[in-house]
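Annex B. Sample input.
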Amino acid sequence: MKLPAYEHKAQYYETDQMGIIHHSNYIRWFEEARVSLMEQMGVGYDRMEAEGIMSPVLAVTCEYKSMTRFGETVDIHTEITKYDGIRLELSYEIMDHTTCELRCRASSRHCFMEKDGGNLVSLKKSRPKFHTLFMKAIAEAE
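Annex B, continued. Sample output.
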């Protein structure tokens, strides 16, 4: 089962003086898509945080291919590219909803930490139900 792309309609406040979406907003869109993906997997951030787990961003890379303008809708295809129970890597492709033109390609890296202590956490060991949901989503995407 491949999870559907996250859809986002570009808002006016996201534009810059040139009338295009400011590059920093793509990072926010990745987060929206990541949160949506995790919710669809059954591992929503709210659920993880309720169990004392945080997942901070370690790195983001982004390559812009074409511009997005106010009012356009984009599809954000998000995929888990690496997961070991402690760290998570995702890839993103933002495509124009109508033309399928590639807007940008990106990736992000995350880790799992205890909310209170800030120590790294192995979901496989400390939260096996979350680990199982990640493994299931990866298997179903293949």
